[in-house]
Amino acid sequence: MKRVDDFRLRFGEREIVPIMIGGMGVDISTAELALEAARLGGIGHISDAMLPTVSDRRYETDFVKTKLQQYKYNIDNADKAEVKFDLGHIAEATRLHVSKTMEAKRGEGMVFINCMEKLTMNAPKETLRVRMQEAMSAGIDGITLAAGLHLGSFALMEDHPRFRDVKLGIIVSSLRALQLFLRKNARMNRLPDYIVVEGPLAGGHLGFGMDWAQYDLRTIVNEIVQYLRTEQLNIPVIAAGGIFTGSDAVSFLEEGVAAVQVATRFTVSQECGLPDDVKQEYFKASESDIEVNGTSPTGYPMRMLKNSPGIGSGIRPGCESYGYLLDSDGKCSYIDAYNREVALHPEAKKVQVFDKTCLCTHMRNFKIWTCGHYTYRLKDTTTRDAAGHYQILTAEHIFHDYQFSTDNRVALPG
Ligand SMILES: Cc1cc2nc3c(=O)[nH]c(=O)nc-3n(C[C@H](O)[C@H](O)[C@H](O)COP(=O)(O)O)c2cc1C
User: Fold this and answer.
1) Is 8 a domain residue?
2) What is the CATH number of the domain that holds 20?
3) 412 in a domain, yes or no?
């Protein structure tokens, strides 16, 4: 019986344990978690979502306060077009987070950064360019292009001296999206180094519509593996979404994928950025406590725990402090939803908004509990004490369980 450890992900001469921990914004996949994956010979991700606020929390900078001071005058204005990011600040926050993480890296593995195109930041191209370019300058091993088609992202990096040496990958949820990406980037003469195929059971935003349940990871992976073979494109495929045990991973590796990307199991690790009481909520969840809904202003369906405190919360839009989801016209669908409720309830001190959520503020404060479909199985991966608390696991324990387990078993902590 094979184990994940019988396989290796190959990047040229380099051999990597084929376990990649996926990016989880906002600082849920911390530097500490990513560094553990690298130390153990796999790949970990930090996330570049909302790095100025992450930097304030981790490195005592003042990016959010400075931005709020600059745009305070606009707080009651529904039009956020003027609320622009300072590109220098984005660069500095990215440089700090990436360089501090890379300096601490030990072991044979790698640390990548997850870069979401849907963080349009009121100037999509300019901000994305700075985020990706600075990550490369600060020494990141790889960039995973996520949450979007990224048709122009390679072009935004093309002039960087590391463009051909840093590992670049893209997350897709269909063969069509991959074909589109390859076609648009054909003139670049630079293929992606890996392709993450993410199915409908993943956490975070989904690359499907609300009909996500009709899709199946294995079918999409097989289509893409076949396509790459036919086209004689030798690009490692990495399967993601609902791979819960080492045996699940082996079943994909045996079908020709080069590695798996996993996340949900690590949400209850010590190194994960979620607060401990939120980790207990993840452990406690049953299947009926998890839903895919349309509350994210990005327009993509998102999976989360139904009891996330951010659902229904009608807080004032926090764009002057954050504003990561403002499109190129300074618009976000939460602002419209919030103003609609305020207009409907002119007397109310506080309104409730259920159709959209202020995702920046609530992800920043860990109040939207996004999670993978199999979160309800996390309780089976640990022990519970007499007071009813589930034992938080080390990332090493979970990583090794993926790497060495067989027979669909999950090793409990010692
Ligand atoms: C809490 C959480 C947050 C996530 N955030 C992001 C994100 O910011 N960007 C992204 O591309 N994927 C995100 N994902 C998706 C993961 O990186 C990963 O591809 C997927 O969840 C793997 O499936 P699994 O959770 O069933 O193992 C997130 C997943 C979870 C569980």
Assistant:
1) yes
2) 3.20.20.70
3) no
Q: Which helix (H) or strand (E) holds 183?
A: helix 175-184
Q: Domain range for residue 310?
A: 4-404
The per-residue pLDDT of the chain, averaged, comes to 98
C-beta 48 within 6 A of ligand 1: no
Residue 45 Cα to ligand 1 middle (Å): 10
Number of domains, the chain? 1
Q: Which of 264, 281, 378 most suits a substitution to test ligand 1, by most atoms within 8 Å of the C-beta?
A: 264
Asked if residue 198 is part of any domain, the answer here is yes
Compute the distance between CA of residue 112 and CA of residue 46 in angstroms, rounded to an integer.
6
Chain segment 50-83, per-residue pLDDT in tens: 999 999 999 999 999 999 999 999 999 999 999 9
By C-alpha distance, which of 29, 80, 26, 84 is closest to 56? Answer: 26
33 CB under 6 A from ligand 1?
no
Q: What is the DSSP letter of 370?
A: B
**pLDDT, tens only, 206-222:** 999 999 999 999 999 99
Q: Ligand 1 centroid vs 211 CA: distance in angstroms?
A: 19
Burial annotation 172-199 (CB, 10 A radius, 16+ → b, else e): bbebebbeebbebbeeeeeebbbbbbbb
Cα 372 to Cα 200: distance, rounded to the nearest angstrom = 9
For the chain, the straight-line distance linking the first and the last C-alpha, in angstroms and rounded, comes to 24
Pair of tokens at residue 254: 């045996």
Q: Is 38 part of any domain? A: yes
| Cα–Cα separations (whole angstroms), residue 24 to 249, 272, 341, 395 | 20, 9, 31, 14
What kind and span of H or E run contains 281? helix 276-284
Q: What is the pTM of this model?
A: 0.98
Nearest alpha-carbon partner for 319 in 50, 68, 58, 14: 68
Q: What is the DSSP letter of 210?
A: T
Ligand 1 centre to CA of 261 (Å) is 9
Could you read off the pLDDT of 105-141 as tens digits, one per residue?
999 999 999 999 999 999 999 999 999 999 999 999 9
Our answer on whether the CB atom of 241 is closer than 6 Å to any ligand 1 atom is yes
Q: What is the per-residue pLDDT across 85-103, written as a single tens digit (0 to 9) for each?
A: 999 999 999 999 999 999 9
